[in-house]
Each structure stands twice: as structure tokens, then as C-alpha cells.
Amino acid sequence: MKTLHYSIIVISLIGISFFIGENAYGCLGNCPPIIPPPHYTSPPITVSTNLENYSTGDNIVLVGHVFNQTKNTPLIIKIFDPIRQFQFDKNVPVSLNGNYTWTLSTVDFWSFDASGNYTVLAQYGQVYAITHFNLNSTLTQYLYSQSPLWQFRNGMAAQDVHCHAGLSLILKKENFAPACVHSLTATHLILNGWAITHLPEPFIEKFAITGLQQNYTIGQSINATVTYAGYYWYKEPDVKILDANGTQIWYNCAYCSARTEAIPSPSSDTFTYVVRDYGSNKLPMINKTGTYTMVASLDNKAASAEFTVVKPLMLPASFESCDTPYPQSNTGVAVLYMPANSTGKLCVDYSNPNPPRSTDVRIFEAQHLSEDTKDIQVFTPQDNIPQGNSTIVYTLKTSKVGFYGLTLFCYGTPLAVGYDNQSRIVTNDFPWLGQTFYCPMQSYTFHISGLSGIGVKYIPYP
Fold it and tell me: Which pLDDT does position 33 carry in this prediction?
């Protein structure tokens, strides 16, 4: 096993700066060592492999340790081939004690099709560690020795699947899955319309707009999805919104010609496209009332759907989901409080630039952080945080007196049941306050905007 420890050396050179990117690592013949990104502070990390030499079919186990972790810092491991070309990378989770491990197969990636000395670079913030391993690659022979279905499921294009001697390659007409059969059988299946010998030209079928509501209010994000099936791979749909006069008022992209997420080759599948602006990644919105038509098209297929934009209904405060604005303050820790055996509402504003994701709300007892409580029930009319700007209303139904934590993301907001603004509430009632938590990367932002039947009391910081 090889393990490398690196110390940090800070060198200041006035007037000299440099940076070496991934695309500068390629070389031919004798290759210089990989120069990692510049680093300045923080303690070292380690990285090592379980063996020095591998052959195709082996598993490579990478292990190491990160000293003095910092919040929201990912550990990135990059793999370079024998000519120092970058192949792939991965964010590897680090345990609370600083250890990490990543097991990768030498047959899972086409990146391991060359024999030689590979380089592993583990980077954590501005520190890094490097190790190497040797690989005797027989990947092509290994793949060709597997069954047609195995080759296909592991990244081989259907038309490139290798058949053993004496067998011919055919493709199932229904889904273009490869099969290796005897020549006589191949002829019989082709004549009966079950199989073909070559992939067809890409085509689209079952093209539709889904998820479009009948009514939206002025300034509300318009959420819709285009679904389409067929044998396809290249572009995504063009989507326009027309007003009642047929005038175009919104277009997803005037200059797009390819997919936002590339598909390497045509595949028989059902595809989904969330209607959004390619440039800003924002959902469309309209600031004028009227009747509108959304039109989507791709190649020779098109679909349309109508919707209406109306003025928002202004209700008295008593009709609102949350009739009290959330009191913002930096004077201490915010503690939510409610009477026992009561019902309250919590309005949370979200801004999510990514595809919809689950809300993941939970409530736990203050002394048992890892266990959800049964003393408080949480209800919400929707299970997902939609893309764009939205407000989700959470209804809380309490039972007995106690201290709890309400988690909207990673850490818990203190919640006191059976207490009010005059009660004695201290930070020791919530043991997690003041502790450090290692949270995953947050892909959206949120804040509590309103309350109903729930109060807020600020207590001194721990």
C-alpha cells in the first residue's frame, strides 16, 4: 500500500502567478508529473491504494484521511491516465472522523482501456495528496468476452456489441436491444419483423406538454414539462408562449441547437424536458392578464396547450395561510413556540433553480436528534419543492408539552410546545445549539416568511 502525506509550504513570488488546468495535463512519451492546484493553508490529507498493480477486472480501493475538516468543503478525487489526460472525478463523502474510501471497478469505466501508470489526485479545499497505481488493461478483450446484454448495459453502443465466433449481431426491433444468434436464426427473425440489422434514423413519437395548470396569477412561475418518446438523442424541444393574438412573448432559447445534458448516442427511451429559459434556467412568468398558448416542437412533432393568467385574489389577513409575518432579528436564537394540543401553520419561501426535490421536513425530540417524534404531526399540500420561486405551507399539530427541533434542511430550529413568550426558555433546552454540523451542499435557498398559531421568542446565543 502506498500512502503520501503532504505538508503545506507557502511561497510568495511577487509578479509571478500560474495555474495549470486539466486540459494542460495531456502529453506524449515521457510525461511530467501532474502539478496540482496551488495551495496555501490548512493541514494535509492522505490518499492511498490497496495495491500497487491491478489488472482488468480488479477493484481499486482508494482510502485516506482528511485532517481538521471544514464545513461545506468537498473532497474531490480525480483520475488521470498514463499520458496525464484527465479521465473522470468524483466527490467522495468524508466521515466525521476524517476517513474516506472509494471503490471503483476497472471495468466500469472506458477510461481504463490503457495500460500504464495512473495518477490519483485527492483535493480538499486548497490542500491535496497524490498517489499512483499501475494497470495492465485488457478492457477491450474483457468486454468482448461478456454477453451481448452485459456489453450493452455497461456502455457499449448496440451496433458495436461484439458477438462470439459463429454468431451474428441483430437488434430487437421493439427496443433496439442487441442479441447474438446463429445466421439462420437471424434471417428468420428479420423476415418475421422481430429484428433488424442496423439502427434506424432517430425519430420522435408520443410528444406532449404535461403539468401545465389551467390558471396562473401575474408574476407566478409557469411550470410545465414536455415529454417525448422514441429513438432520439440530439436536441431538446423548442418552446414558445403566444398571446391571444398569436404574438410570441416568450421563447426558451433563440440560439440553442443541442441538449443541456448530452446523450452520447441515440437511445430508445422516454425523455423529459422542464420548460425553462436555457440562459438563466428560470421558469417563464407573465406579468399581464390574458389567455396564452404554449407551443412545443421538436423535429416533426408539435404540441400545444392553453392557460390563463389572472390577477391574484386579495383576501383579508384572516383568510391567509399565515396571518403573521415572521419577526426577523439578530438578537439571539429564534425559538418557535405553540400551545399543547393546538394547530399552527408555517409558511416557507423557497427559491430553487434546480429540478423539483422532496421537502424532507422532520421534527425530533430535543434529547433524541436522530429520531422523529410522534408527538407532533406535520402536513403539507405538496411533497416537492418546485423549480423556481414558491411558498409551501406546513401545518403542525401538537399534543404534549416538550422541547423539539424542526428541520427544514440539515440543522433543527428550536420548537417549544406548551410554552409562550413569557416562559423561561434557555439554550440548554436544545442540546444541539452551538454544535457543528456537516451538511450536504444546499441546492436551494429558503426562509420562514409567515406564521399562524405559532409564536417566536428570541433567546441569547449559546
Answer: 59
In the predicted structure, residue 42 carries a pLDDT above the cut 70: no
Could you give the CA distance from residue 148 to residue 443 in angstroms, rounded to a whole number?
Answer: 39
Contact 292, 222 (CB under 8 A): no
User: How many Å is the maximal CA-CA distance in the chain?
Assistant: 88
Q: d(Cα 277, Cα 90) in Å, to the nearest integer?
A: 29
Q: Which of 454, 360, 458 is nearest to 411 (CA)?
A: 360
Residue of 454, 452, 427 whose CA lies nearest to 339: 454
Look at residue 430 in the predicted model and tell me its pLDDT.
94
165 pLDDT exceeds 60?
A: yes
For residues 313-326, give the mean pLDDT.
67
Domains of the chain listed by start with CATH number: 2-136 (2.60.40.1930), 147-196 (no CATH), 203-310 (2.60.40.10), 321-459 (no CATH)
What is the arithmetic mean of pLDDT over 258-265?
A: 63
Distance CA 59, CA 108 (A): 10
Distance CA 412, CA 29 (A): 56
pTM of the model: 0.38
Contacts of 51 (CB under 8 A, 6+ apart): 1, 58, 60, 133
